[in-house]
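Give me the fold.
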Amino acid sequence: MVHINLPPQPQPVAAIEAIAKPTQSPQNSINRYLDQQQAKTENTAIAAPKAHLSKLIDGLEQQDLSRQKPRLLSPIEAVPSTPLAQTTTDQLPVVAPSVVDTEPEESLETEEGLGTEENAEIQDLEPDENLGTEEGSEPGTIFFLEPNEAETNEQLSDEEFISQLSLTADFQAYNPAAQVITARGDVRLQVGDSIIEADQVWVNLTNRFALAEGNVLLTTGGQLARGDRAEYNFIQQAGVIGGAVGTLFLPDIEEDFASPLAGNRRSRRVFDPVSRDPTFDVINDGNVQVGSRADSQPSDGDGELDGNGQLNQLRFETDELSFGVEGWRAESVRITNDPFSPPEVELRADGLLLRNLSATQDELLLKRPRLVFDQGLALPLLRSRILISRGSGVNSDDLNPVPIVIGVDGRDRGGLYIGRQIPLITSRRTRFSITPEYFAAQAVSGNTSSPVDLENFGATVKLDNRLSPTTRLSGRAEVTGLDFVDITEDIRARLSINQAIARHRLSLQYSYRERLFNGSLGFQDVQSSVGTVLVSPTFTLGSTGLKLSYQASAQVINAETDREDLLLSSGSDTGRVTLGRYQGSIALKRSFNLWRGQPKPATQEEGLRFTPRPVVPYLDLNTGIRTTSTRYSSGDSQNSLLADIALEAQLGHFSRNFGDYTRLLLGYSQSFIGDATSPFLFDREVDRNILSVGIAQQLYGPIIAGFETAFSIDSGDAVSTTYSLEYSRRTYGILLRYNATQEAGSIGLRLSNFNWIGDTDPFDTPRIREVEAGVIESF
């Protein structure tokens, strides 16, 4: 999330309290209006709208008025404050509400679906003798009215409606005949928690309509918009901003753009136009990881870069923005997560419609959307509909500009393969998709009869269903060949039900032919497994800095063994046996900071040039210990006490083009007790002494190359060797990774200032679970 505090702006000329001569008591136009209304009420009941106001509106409709064209603002940039225009009182705009289409938009497939409504624009009207005379006030006079308790707009009387308003300006006037308030020069109109600043503002008390022109600034809660013209209908709760540039804080967008007369005070304000803060702060609150986790990515020194999974704050620009109870509509829209201009990456669309589907989900419809990088490269976003779930953010697949998935799987798919995900069910609770795949490397290798052999085709099926707020069903199935010659060897599947219990996760799991990677023993297939796993969160033990986690499991597993006695006793001729497996594991970790440098300022040219957060140089000593006990129904057991220690250093600030970023890792782990006594191969602890070395180095500009390897001292084999190449920018990054030991690779895309829950598959490259000290990785 990017928090933006705008640069200092000129203070309003008008004072906060009414100014009057010492010999006179202040009396403003609103007070006079209230006195008149009270006197009329004592003699007769309140009547329908004044006849002269109806004549005024009828006269406006009979005139041939030209449509005003909004001034276009410069692309995606903060609009600096300029001296307010001087205005005169010889012309009075008739303030009447525009015609607002309240029907929801059904489709964005055609040009007509994105057309703007034909609004009845407010135009200047020559003075009419039927309007009466304006009652003016000297510069500095204030209309100030305290807000009352909220009521619906339709039920508010004139006096109650006025009591919701607070108005300050250099010049103010009230026309009792037209019931129109006119304010000019440093105008500030506050309605509930919404504030409008402009050169000129007109408020029609009868129609409950406000019009603002000239350097318009609208702030409401966490939302901010600038434009040259704005209008708002309090009855219809709808408005239009011309030439809009601003900031959206999505978690509060529905609350902030509810009726401003609702009386709810927002918990967050993006910008206070009265108490302007002269600082400009930028805070990164997380990233969307589309693909693999960026291990080589520079750190902010706290080791936490991923966020809570919500799409939070964005900047936008559009020719015209209209909003109301049915949603938002914009044309020629540009959206970016970059707090600086020009933006490094932005989403452009010919049209946009954002509307609410339920209390927990919004729908974003886009016309011809594309991602534009560095004002040049444009990639079409092949999705016109994006669902935004409050609390779980946006699905990574909806933000993926690449029309195909790309991965490397040397074991099951013969190397490089491509695919295209097809969503079958997309709802608030359920996501179900199928991804047809083509094994490109295998097709050209000559190992199959032809490139179109069915053996070169496969598919991946994914299911994710939220059964309840605390229960989730997830499943995945892979078919690695459609020839069906040996179907039992071409299918892998995993199904789990996860239940949240007091911050823990209880999982009921079933898997078929799941492959696990066990160090120097390589890949091992678990033919079938069914059971339950309890995983704890990470607890911080007081102020000691110790972090505690644990897990326990009970499973029935059928897997390969090299124990002849077990094969004979079970009568198995497949090399597999079925045993009960019961395991408990506890881990303690502690990190010691040996040295910590200072980050560069969070500016466009220094700390945030290539990274979403300023890089903090540091030197850390990381320590950990894990004890594991495993029992099998055969009477066997495997126990271990694994200790590890590592030095991790980050040097430079990654703000210059060359030699300004290096990350180093040197670690060692050893298992002190027990032996490799598991009857299975997939969890046998054979690598008891491991040395790890890693480096990530800036080559030039935003390019980082990385290498990391883990070496088993016992067997003399490489446990894992990974190569990476990253193109890192402030708002996005592209990461290529390849693990030579596992023959698996991926291409990942990072979008900064978005947040994400959990980890994602690297562009549908099958996620490989690893085994450490006999403990299977949990995700």
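Residues 391-776 form one domain.
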